[in-house]
Amino acid sequence: MDMNSFVFRGEAAELRWGYHPAATLKDWTLTPQSSSSFSVTARVVSSDAYRVSQHPIVFTVPRQASVWKWPVVSLQIVGETLTASLGPQE
Fold first, then answer.
1. Chain centre to alpha carbon of residue 57
2. pLDDT tens for residues 45-76?
3. CA–CA distance, 43 with 77 (Å, rounded to integer)
């Protein structure tokens, strides 16, 4: 199967700067762009402007036994909508 044909969706996610929450996200959609890059869109529920502007920022998705993580390469927040480019899953 071609990974580029998959779209992942979820209800809850978070941007993290180290151990600090930078933004709480809802209704996210993750789309593979290549074998090692992804794009994500999500609704921003809350955010800390300072923490969101720091590096490195990681997009995280809680799972039952673990957490999925992707490094954020670039991001933009307009109103309540986050759009970001992500690197390979950690």
1. 9
2. 999 999 999 999 999 999 889 999 999 999 99
3. 9
Helix (H, G, I), strand (E, B) or coil at 63: coil
Contacts of 37 (CB under 8 A, 6+ apart): 73, 85, 86, 87, 88
- Rounded CA-CA distance 19/4 in Å is 31
Helix (H, G, I), strand (E, B) or coil at 49: helix
pTM above 0.85, yes or no: yes
Q: What pLDDT is recorded for position 1?
A: 42
Q: Do 58 and 16 form a contact (C-beta atoms < 8 A)?
A: yes
Closest to 86 in 3D by CA, of 45, 57, 62: 57
